[in-house]
Amino acid sequence: MLHVFDMDGTLLRGTTASLEISRHQSCLQQITDLEKMFDNGLLTTKIFAQEVHKLWSALDETGVDHIFENSPWIQDIEKVMSDIREKGEHSIVITMSPNFFAERLKKFGVAEVYSSTFPPLPFASPIDVSKILTPDDKVTITQKTLARLSLKETECIAYGDSGSDIPLFKYIQNNISINGTQSLISLARETYIGNNLFEAYQLSREKYIQRS
């Protein structure tokens, strides 16, 4: 069984990596405006990435460590990843957020992390927009991972919260919305509202694994 998790709004409760980084970089209003434009379909992920690359010119690895450790993570991420591993199953996170933040999820026991690739910190080179993920990439990455693990679509559970997860939820029917927006809840086959990932994970196992 493959478990595919989103990060922003799903593992990160009620926020995004970009917002948390921007609080630290004193450019929160600019990022809030950019995220609203993205949510309204006025920006692509690639243009968004180019804009935040400009705003985060002073960011370094020490700052990211601090931001990551102090971000509002949903409870029991490590417990879920440990249980997945002990059952011989596989976990991945797919996020459009920067790799320098998302890769730290491996501290929680996530087996693989797929994210948008930014230049090394502090930024000294331009961003390569071809390495910025889009919502459709969540489907492509999931397909490739399933093939590599010799698993079928029905042997996969998708966990997400918002419109960027819609392509994945249309592809993976075994899905669960976690603190989701209405656009995703209307598509999801299961819904969880709360602050404990293990509860959502148990709900998904009961629906998609134990009853299969």
From TrEMBL:
Tell me what organism the protein belongs to: Acinetobacter haemolyticus
Superkingdom of origin organism: Bacteria
Q: Which Pfam families match?
A: HAD
Q: What is this protein called?
A: HAD-IB family phosphatase
Question: Which InterPro entries does the entry link to?
Answer: HAD-like_sf, HAD_sf
Species lineage, top-down? Bacteria, Pseudomonadati, Pseudomonadota, Gammaproteobacteria, Moraxellales
